[in-house]
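Incident review: delayed structure delivery

Summary: a single-chain prediction request sat in the queue longer than the usual turnaround. Root cause was a stuck worker, restarted by the on-call engineer. No data loss occurred. The affected request and its eventual output are reproduced below so the record is complete for anyone auditing the incident later.

Affected input:
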Amino acid sequence: MNGITMRAWQVLILLLCATLVGCGYSNGTSGGGYHWQSLYRQDVQTVAVPIFKNVDYHRGVEFALTKAVINNLESRTPYKVVDEKKADTVLEGEIVSIKAHDVSSESRSAVPQEELYIVTCNFVWKDLRNGRILVERKNYEQTSTYYPTLGESQWVGSQAAVEPLAQGIVQELQHDW
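Output delivered after worker restart:
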C-alpha cells in the first residue's frame, strides 16, 4: 500500500471507532451521559408568586424582588405565573434582613465612598397538589455595591441586588440532577 491509501484507511478506522464509541449524549431514556431534557421539572406548568413578605424596616424591596422573580420565571423557565387558585405550585418568600455596610470611606471626612447592600431572604417552593416542598432555602443572600459619593442612594444598591437575587432564586427551582 502506498502512503495515501494507508492514511485513508487510518482515517476511516478512526471515524468508525468514534462512531461506535459515541460522545455520551442521549435523549434521557438511557442511564448515562448527557441529557437533552429541560433543567426544570416536567410535572409543573404553573407557579403562583405572592408578594414576598418583608420583616425588615427597609420598605419597597419586597415589591421589586417579587416583580423580578416573576419576570425571571416567565423569561427563563417553562413555567407560567398564574393566580394561586389555578397554580400547580406556589413560591413564597420572605426578606429577613437588609443591611448596608461601608466598604470604604473618605479618610478626612469619614464620608462613605463605597457601600455594600445585602439582602437576605428565605423562600419555599411548594406543590399545591400534594403539599410536598420542592425547594426550601434559608438565608439566601445577595450583595451589591453602590457609591454614595457619586450620588447613588440605597435605592440603587437595592435595585442592583434584587435582579441577581431573583435570578438565583429562579435557578434554585431547577430539577435535581
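Verification: The two ends are 52 Å apart (CA to CA).
Action items: add queue-age alerting; document worker restart procedure.
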